[in-house]
UniProtKB/TrEMBL annotation:
Subcellular location: Cell membrane
Organism field: Microcaecilia unicolor
Membrane topology: Multi-pass membrane protein
Chain ranges passing through the membrane: 530-551, 563-585, 597-618, 639-659, 685-708, 720-740, 752-775
Record carries keyword Protein biosynthesis: no
GO molecular function ontology, one term from the record: G protein-coupled receptor activity
Lineage: Eukaryota, Metazoa, Chordata, Craniata, Vertebrata
Name of this protein: Extracellular calcium-sensing receptor-like
Amino acid sequence: MDEWFYFQTYEWMQSMIFAIEEINKGQTLLPNVTLGFQVYDSCKMHQRAVDGTLWMLTGSDEAIPNYRCQRSPFATMVGDAMSVGSIAMAQLLGISRYPQISYFSTSPLLSDRNHFPSFFRTVPSDVFQSLGLAQLVIHFGWTWVGFLAFKNDYCQQGVQMVKEEIVKAGVCVAFSETIQANKNAVHITHTIRSSTANAIVVFSGSLELIPLMDEMVRQNVTGKIWIASDAWSTSSFLSQQKYTGILFGTIGFALHSGEIPGFKEFLMNTYLARTPNDIFLMKFWEDAFSCKWPEREAVFGSQNNRTNLCTGNENLDSLRNLSTDVTSLRAAYNIYNAVHAIAHALDGLSSCQQGRGPFRSGTCADVANFQPWQLLHYIKNVHFHNGIGNEIFFDEQGNAPARYDIINWQQSAQGTIRHVKVGSYDSSAAPGKHLAINMSAIFWGSGEAQVPLSVCSHRCPPGYRKVVREGAPICCYQCVLCPLGEVSNQTDSAKCSRCSWDHWPNARQDQCVPRNIEFLSYEEPLGTTLAAAGVIFSLIPIASLGLFIHHRNTPIVKANNRNLSYLLLLALTLCFLCSLTFIGYPSPEKCLLRQAVFGISFSLCISCVLVKTIMVVIAFNATKPSSNFRRCVRPQLSYVVISVCTLIQALVCVSWLILSPPFSEYNTQSSPGKIIVECNEGSPIAFWCMLGYLGLLATMSFIVAFLARNLPDSFNEAKFITFSMLAFLSVWLLFIPAYLSTHGKYMVAMEIFAILSSSSALLSCIFFPKCYIILVRPELNSREKLMGQKGGPSKKIKAI
């Protein structure tokens, strides 16, 4: 027996004895069968584990391969605790298919059924721990993680599996260091201090981690989130007060702690007289109560006369050590489940009915004399619920359901660390529900309830996308605003998505909203103003027409070609009113007709002005003796010229409407976030031809009027027409660049403004002086005044 005595391992042995006694006393399992046991201390050495295995198989102190001295069948081997020992044992036991159930060996190698066909375990494989720790890191959103691992196989394999899992989920490794006892604690501490990673996964034993923690205390490195493997997640060595500032808030995995009903009472009733053959109890008693048995004192002697002698009546209730603490049974709980699994397998074997058995020809095994491979069959298929309701079974690799407690290190009132269960991991749960965490029960080292961050780059909010920095891990990125017209509605979006044609991103660019539909409507102020101006201005030529008709026989009306003035005023009314066709929803019908109406109306108007100018020149020259212009002073010529000029424009517009008609369209390109409903002119060439023809008529009118400006004032309208044409051409020349540089409703408003301005220029320059004389200076509206202005020569002309 070892010189050093471990209370915890003695408790493990007691849990096995308790489970066997519980089964033997009960009537549910193996009612007519009594289980026995043998205990062998491997002392954590795999060679002694092999020696013990051979000793138990042989049944004598001398190991004899393939031979058993005892007549009672050997059922199953429970052990070893260390994976190295279990591997050595499993290689030996697997040859003869002797079942073996370990309660603490977690190496993934033992799941290989080709090499270890008869190995089972009630403790989870390290594979499940690695998967669980990876899920824990992902659950808390830590994407920038450091790794520490001691230089043994358990730690290196465990940390490698965690890395592989988290990398699949997009988590990045900030650093990875190997702990080498006292050799590199300073280097690792410097790495941790200089890294921006706050979350650190540590696979190590508690004793191997102490030098690093001491160095962390010395350099006062705090604010890190420690993620513990089960080897140190409940360590009493690291729970001392001096490590509180560093390890407070640690979270990690620990073997599932289960309750064993009646086990505490069983331990409290342990005494030497009850179990006289227990060779471990004497050593336990001496270490627990700091005393010596009289017979051992006599044999070994002592130089200390004050040595207490053990009586065997000491009170176990007074002990406060690992041997009596059953509040958090982990390995002992696994041993308890292992014994019950064996009992259920034996019960299945003993209750087999001949003819219905699992072996050849339906045969069964004899519970008093069975082969190891026969019991192996039943252990593979064992499935039951233990005393606290947990489901126990083995999968194809011999693993029981992997259950872990999630432990959080919290500060006690005394300033030390206490280990608080805040969640669990269960591999048998439904996918996505393996982790169960009570977030409100967790205390972080920062003192805040919010989960601390461990990221290389802060998360990109909706409306942004991630762009990885060149040469950096994928977790180190920049947040870039989504391009125009695209959105991202998730945090840390890798790309932005384009909105549909009738939608546009909102101000935050995190969702698509319907685009605003824009056109020049009657309801908005600009549309209302322009519509009102068009209607009001159209009333002025009508009023002027009424005034001229009322004063039709006055000299000023007769002297300025009365009928042409009437027609011009009607044409101006149409020009003002045609602006209304540009306001309102651009329906297909409105788009088809509005430019044609505008072009023909203005052609009629400018044709009238051109004819008035020509007629002034003809009328003046017709007064000369023997003039050939007398034949031209007739109304029919005026109407022919007007009709021809207007008909040319009408032909241009009709050709336009037939060959490439305007149509209504949705413009989503000109103005972000808007759908501009506008009229596509169909053929830009036709549109500019129509405007160019108006410009040609206006230019001809301007030239003729300019040349006729020096004719006698009595008959001369040329000066007024010159100014009107100058204003008309100026408006439309300025219209061209303004029209080309605007879009949407403002382009339409610009054309309406040009229509109203040019029409107003014609109306004011040609008719306002005449209306002024008629209304304000009627004394000037006489033949004598018109014929004798400025005292110049007066000539009699026939009024047209």
